[in-house]
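Hi R.,

Here's the chain you asked about this morning:
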Amino acid sequence: MLAVHDLEITVGARTLMSGVDFRVQPGDKVGLVGRNGAGKTTLTKVLAGWTLPSDGRVERVGEIGYLPQDPRSGDPEQTARNRILDARGLGDVRTRLAEAATLMAEADDDAERDRYMRRYARLDDEFTMLGGYAAESEAAAIASNLSLPDRILDQPL
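And the predicted structure, written out as tokens:
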């Protein structure tokens, strides 16, 4: 849940918005539309807690992920699916899972392979508990709702 009360955002001497009040409940779908320079990115950063508003209050229940729109930020080989998982704090576990899978495949003997298989199983449990597979399903559902093919999630941004 997200609640915004009497929010004001200024950049320098310019007031981008003031007196903003709204609530977003679980399950709500929200679009943020406006002309260039209107403050959409700044508002999003305030809502995610990356920066503070000039005035007003933002109440958050749970975590809010923020996925920057600038494709030049970060790894140019990064996929949409990985960016979504990273925004939910799952990037580290996902990376360690991939490393464990590689080590499993490259193991020279059964004992070494078994050790990496146990590591992979522990990491997979952690990924599941953190909601990683649910996040992947949600990403696929978002792509589908936007009439995009699921493969779009695995293409570089």
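Residues 2-60 form one domain.

Let me know if you need anything else.
M.
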